[in-house]
Task: structure prediction
Amino acid sequence: MDCGSCAGTIRTALERLPGVQDIAVSVTNETLSLKLAPGGTSSDAITAQIAKLGYKPELQQGTVTAIARAAEVPKRWWQTNKARVAITAGALLGVAFIAGELVPAASFWFFVAATLLAIAPITRRAIAAARAGAPFTIEMLMTIAATGALFIGAIEEAAVVVFLFAVGEVLEGIAANKARSGIRALAALVPKTAWLDEGGTVREVQAEALRIGQTVLVRPGDRVPADGTVIDGHSGVDESPITGESVPKAKEPGAPIFAGSINQEAALRVRVEKAAEDNTIARIVTLVEEAQDAKAPTERFIDRFSRVYMPAIVGLSVLVAVLPPLVAGGDWSIWIYRGLTLLLIGCPCALVISVPAAIASSLSTAARHGILVKGGAIIEELGRIRAVAFDKTGTLTWGRPVVTDIVPLEGDAHALLALAAAIERESSHPLARAIAERADDDHAPKLAASAVRAVAGKGMEGAVAGARIFIGAPRFAAERGALEEAVSRQISTLEEQGKTVVVVQKEAQAVGLIALRDEPRADARAAVAELRSLGITPIMLTGDNRRTGAAIARDLGIDVQAEMMPEAKVEAVRKLAAQGPVAMVGDGINDAPALAAAHVGIAMGSGTDVALEAADAALLKSRVADVGKLVRLSRGTMANIRQNIAIALGLKLVFLVTTVTGTTGLWLAILADTGATVLVTLNALRLLGFFRDGDRATGGTAERGREAIASA
Result:
């Protein structure tokens, strides 16, 4: 299943069967679940009905976990039947055009072959959908248009139209599999094996087999295999894949720990608190799947419009073909020809191209400016958003700590930085790297250190010039030597600003403080202000602590909700969505469920692969300001589409009337329809200059529009 219409067709087909209830079709999982009343339809009959629609149903036995389901690898796109049809039809089309130059008589049959090959599976699906109660689908539209074109000899047009439709279906399938690959990458965060500790005997087991109450050994560098509680050991654990916390968290006995997080410094023993199907990553996978399925995809415009337009055109064509001969004794050949002509004219060529032409120009413009958008439906949705939720770490901020304050308690700042860097250069901890980088940037003297070692979960210690040095968090420094009240006040002041403070001790005496913080991106404040000017409400959702979140929010002028797990972010996005369309901007694995739950998910280009796959758009240059540009482009595109629709429908209405009355013939009508196609295409090309100086949501000034058309 590649799109929402697939699910709709299946649902419609099964609703008619006796005893079938509570049908749930998931496009993301490619699964169907339902309830059968006693004495109703058998499962074999349901399987047969789905098979008639062109699918290959497989009855699943037992429970399939979210992670196991996500691990299933689909076929490559070129291995699918749709791809084979599109490739073969394209080859025949190419041969036909070449034959037209060399052997004109032979080209006709190649066009016929290309048309029949590409239209056959489309026609089968159209008939199956009609039997299921949905007769006027886009497949039916294509079937009738291609058949009508064949009858009146417009064979080239028929071949090209059905070929492009086949290619579109292939691209749709590729996009669906891309979304699923993001979920597979997310599921891969949980290790497949774990080290089970049974009374001191350690053996390797499958992570899926772990049971609540068992103890696992997590070595330095290992990913945690299950949600649990630390029962032995001290270590720093990188929880950024789960919470987005920018600094590794110290873990000690009694601390909770999440599956998928990374142990960094020392061995931990963890008691398993949740089964594999309920761990943090499994819940995130499920949240992404549910959010993607709950988000109603924007149907292709022509499919919506055909519900009214196509029945009218088909009915009118039939009346034109048979009514005059039957009622007024008209010439059957003339009126059948007019009926088929009306059907061809009625095929919304200019209307069909009006939307994708504008979308293609819009997507191209966005791509040239470092913004990737996954399809026209996203462009359409972006213009309607009323709120934008931002992750903090790596989105509004750089995602890495930097030194903000150096507070010497004796000596000068240069000497303090050199002393701290001598120890921290031996560590790979993000805070240690930030201190070492600041020392290098400030050209601080490089001091020699000896006996340097990590104190698991607490800090670093070593010796410089014979003196014992310790660098760590204030509470661990206080265990080695009491901190004066004035020093404690300085620490509190810095922490209230959202900064992480480390104490530098020399022979158990504090000699200085170093504060670090993940700083906002240079354009973040301006980006927030621009969104407000567009009538959009910005809000920050972060897994970081409240104090840090509040400090960053004050700097940026944005509301904040802090200490949020992935589930809480999803709930916050859903609450915003209840008030109007909402976009979510994030970069981490922990943001994936919220990105999927929002009407539009936007990932930073510097983010994780999972975030990029779960999102609907990506800011490749990681500029927060591009969110506002994307909204303006969307609004301009939708205005352009409305203009195109007015042009296409207006001209079509005129020539539908003149064709029926016989005022204009087939060729003039087709020429006019082609002219409408050219007009809407040129209008769409105006969007290529959207981001020129002075452009706004209208799509640019009239003068720039004329320049774009002239250059095109």
Observations:
- Residues 78-185+296-347 form one domain.
